[in-house]
Amino acid sequence: MKNNKVGNFFIKRFYGIDDILDEYKESQVNRFGNIAFITLLSYLILSTFIAFLIYLVNIKWAFIFIITSNTLLWFIYLCLGSWFIRLKKLDHIDVPSDDVNSVKQRYLKRAWGTGIGFGIGMYALSIILAVISGDSTLHESIGNVSNIITALFEGVIFGVCTYCWYLRKLKK
Amino acid sequence: MNRVREYRKYLNFTQMDLAQLVGVARQTINLIENDNYNPSLALCINIAIALDTDLNTLFWEEIKHEKQ
Predict the structure, then answer these.
(1) Among the four residues A22, A30, A156, B47, which has the most C-beta atoms within 10 Å?
(2) Which structural domain range is residue A46 located in?
């Protein structure tokens, strides 16, 4: 039997599998991964071609197209992956009744981290987009209060959603 | 339908007990018992060993041919 601990660690973290990664879960994850790989490769070829066509007209819009379509694709895959994980019940974990509180605490910490990471990521992305599109300079974008508040709000919402998502995985 | 559930109950094992013995998740044992997943030969052997029986007893199904 294969014993690829590093690979398994990354697969479990990526798909949010907290329990053991057994042969059933591995086969389901591999199936999803294969389909994702095929569609992503097709997307890569198609988006590169479209970006090249846009580049012939305007280089700025080619950049914006790539960044927007990639972000959109990331979001779609996030939704599809989450739906698949729920559908196949790959993320369910059995928790004894007396351990529920400690597991909830662990998930709360993780949700905090996820929310903060997402907020910072969105803040950085908004700065990059503003600078590339020429709407404002780097200094103006960094100090923009509206950007900071939006990122903070997005981070909080994402953190709360993540925590709710984690709680749904628990099976007492 | 396989006889994993029958033998597990005979030995007073919970699904979690059996899952821990063979090194899989409880959900996987549940799927196997309900015939929703075909386990690998290695896992079948491990289950058979854990339930102190053999593969044929657990998984062999008599195929009845209808006479036309």
Answers:
(1) B47
(2) 1-91
Q: Read off the CATH number of the domain in which B22 is found.
A: 1.10.260.40
Domain count, chain A: 2
Taking an 8 Å cut-off on Cβ atoms, the answer to whether A20 and B31 are in contact is no
What pTM did the predictor assign?
0.70
Domain contains B13: yes
Strand-pairing partners, residue A94, are A171
Alpha helices in B1-68, H assignment, sequence order: 4-10, 15-22, 26-33, 41-50, 55-59
Q: Do A94 and B37 touch (CB under 8 A)?
A: no
pLDDT tens, position by position, A19-58 = 888 899 999 999 999 999 999 999 999 999 999 999 999 9
Establish if B65 belongs to a structural domain.
Answer: no
Residue of B17, B20, B27, B33 to mutate, interface with A, max A Cβ within 10 Å: B27
Residue B21 touches chain A, beta carbons under 8 Å:
no
